[in-house]
């Protein structure tokens, strides 16, 4: 048998499906789906998060998961606290990419003075610690969900812009952009068409990891009391309020912490699976 025949047979042979591929695909769907379902469907349940029981009571007939330090039902807090987590994290990512992607494209394919102006300005913002910015805003009286989302999105813009700029300046992408310009293709079609498709894969991968970073930043801010009020059912706020009673009522801390962890891991798995499928279709 010749080498060319062997190659044709190898190319035509079906690929074996790895035994862990199905489990990874299922995990990429089920892990983020569970906390998202809890966050979206929880507020529809007829549960009251108002104080009405003994503080840090163990699970019982009236409270299936017990109560927290304020006497609130833990099940009600868990079911109602995820919506703020998802909403604030999604809003932060949308704002960060809405500002970071155009900035990166402008720096990559604009004039040199424009590149220097955009990137040096973003470098100053990148050198400023995220939590320090949030603490400064809170100390000056700027609190609340809107301020927290805007500040968290602002500190993510430099990293997003740097990623887009590096991808758009890759040798293959840069050569294709110059060829399209020589053919007379309008600039908006070059940027919104070819360059946008080139940066889509890295952006999806970055979104999975950045989701965890933003979730950690927002949770840390709420944990430190820099964002939502202390009586909010937000998962991070509930963890902060019940840390001292961890051994008396562990469910009030471990359940929301577990949901945050599952949401973060599931988002990374989903991004990885999406990127793998995108690369498979490209090949």
TrEMBL record:
It comes from the Bacteria. Residues 82-271 form the ABC transmembrane type-1 domain. It is found in: Cell membrane. Belongs to the binding-protein-dependent transport system permease family. The chain crosses the membrane at residues 20-41, 85-109, 121-139, 145-164, 207-227, 247-271. One of its GO terms (biological process) is transmembrane transport. Gene3D superfamilies: MetI-like. It is a multi-pass membrane protein. Keywords: Cell membrane, Membrane, Transmembrane, Transmembrane helix, Transport. The keyword Iron-sulfur does not apply. This is ABC transporter permease subunit. Its main location: membrane. The keyword Transferase does not apply. One of its GO terms (cellular component) is plasma membrane. It comes from Streptomyces diacarni.
